[in-house]
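User: I'm preparing a small set of examples for a lab meeting where we compare how different chains pack in three dimensions. I only have the primary sequence for this one, and I'd like the structure in token form so I can line it up with the others. Please keep the answer compact; I'll paste it straight into my notes.
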Amino acid sequence: MGRIRRTRVPRYILDEKDTRTVFDLEKPAVAVGRDATSDIAVLDLRASREHCRIERHGERFLLVDLGSQNGTRLNGLLVERAALKPGDQIGVGGAQIWFEEAPPPDDMELSDTMVTSAEALGLEAGADSLRRLQRVTMALNSELHLDPLLRIIIDHLVEISGAERGFLVLSAGERRPLVRVARNFEQEDVREPDAGFSASIVERVRKTGEPLVTANAVEDDRFQDTLSINAIRARSVMCLPFRQRGQVMGAAYLDNRLQMGAFGEIERDTLMSLVDLAAAAIERARLYEENERRAEELEELNKRLELRVDTQGRELSEVKDRLRSVGQPEGVYPQIIGGSQTMRDVLRLLDKVVKTEEPVLISGESGTGKELIARAIHAHGPRARMAFLSENCAALTDTLLESELFGHVKGSFTGADRDKKGLFELADNGTLFLDEVGDMSPDMQKKLLRALQEGEIRPVGGKAVKRVDVRIVSASNKNLARLVRAGEFREDLFYRLRVLTVDLPPLRDRKEDVPELTHHFLQKHTKPGRSVKELDEGVLELLQGYDWPGNVRELENEVKRMVALSEETIAVEILSPHVRLGARGVGDLEDDGKVRNLIELVEQVERREIEKALRVAQGNKTRAADLLGISRFTLQRKLDKYDMTS
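Assistant: Understood. Below is the structure token output for the 646-residue chain.
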């Protein structure tokens, strides 16, 4: 008979807590874990109840991790599924399982490969600690919210130390320490955590800032008078100071009520490093949640602001409607600067004028912006798409003005070498602005009247007439009604031109518009790419104090001068002398027939200007004297003369 071949039985050698146990298990699947019903039961708390399984597939063996909390290692490396070969080392928590095929039952001698040197074990322990710290660091960095982060911290402290329970106890000032999180080795929350730890030990560590380790707290002389130690029957205890921002804010408290001497120096030093990492992670999570809270508050604030803006927008719309009903213009005239009541009255009148095609007469002093108003009438009127042409009637002789308005034919006068269309013909279906019509000669007035009455023109030297349709907007700085009464302007032409009238106020009657006009001209006359110059203190007050006989045009010229002569800031000294000294406009110098006492008049003027200069100079006499163009000594003498307090 031939020799019968016997099946070899796999052998598993468990090394745990200096004890070696051999298992010969001939099963298709061998269960490994902390559960007592496991085929290979381990005691280490870091092992899961159902940790891993070893499956047999014919002559092959496969190691399978069962989703354990701390992972399964094969020859020092974490694995989920891996093939086994004789001599492989399986790590489950702190326990080691050696795998090899067992010899037949009659050959029970252990292989020499089972002898492992202390040096190799030490290297493996160091590598294991490094892998643990790496895994813990990754876990801490992956969580940005405080509560789940605290659970991760305490779970890893319990796992690495092999503790039964862990408490993270934080305190503020002299208040009683509070447990922020308490977990056991099953990664479950501890019931009634405030009664599960020794507050005395935590307080000692918090005050000293030093870690504390005891192998058996119940018999430790340091805690004989501590009632909580006896109440909870604590044996192994390790308490580590928890620092935040350089101060001890509490402690990480770990215990094992069943095993004495569970914690040593290695666990203490390793966990101190981990606690410092955890403190930084907690601070980061606290700041993150603070930022989240602020972001939520900001979002809520934005919602409230949006609601408020919507509400204010509706209220503003209602206010505009009310203002419009009491004087706010409906149209938008960006070329016209000024928000004073007098200018709002003008713009309200424009709202009506622009809707018609009737002739308009604009009256006002020189420089008040009559051409701007004329252009606004055209731009917002029904002829806006057609031509807008203008002519200053005071700037040309009758012959040239007639040629400009009505055109001429070749040879009609010396220099007329070709036919030329006049402004009436060029502005056909559009608008023609005639400035200073009060300066027209009687003969030109007659010819203009005929063109307006008949709607036709005849070029100079020509015989044929041409039909034209032109809206006339005219302007004059003279009082045409007075000229009509004096017989200097045709009454019939006057009524033809003034079907609608717009009276522009002088700038001295709307001084509240001076700041807006000033800033507009500063921007207008600043070269592209350069910043708008700032006005020094007192400049705007002096600009508003001047009467501006040349009106808006004079103000614009003054601003152009200021921009050209100043540096980054426009100082008071840059202003023209008459503006700086508050000189009055021509209108105030007109003779009203009264004779004034010169001594009283001089005193009145000097008092007024001295008070103004001191106000602008904010009481500085030297600067006030400079503004007045006199010496400081002269200023003081006048102050004494008029008994004026300085």
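A couple of notes for your slides: The radius of gyration is 51 Å. Confidence is low (pLDDT under 50) at residues 1-6, 102-126, 583-590.

User: Perfect, thanks.
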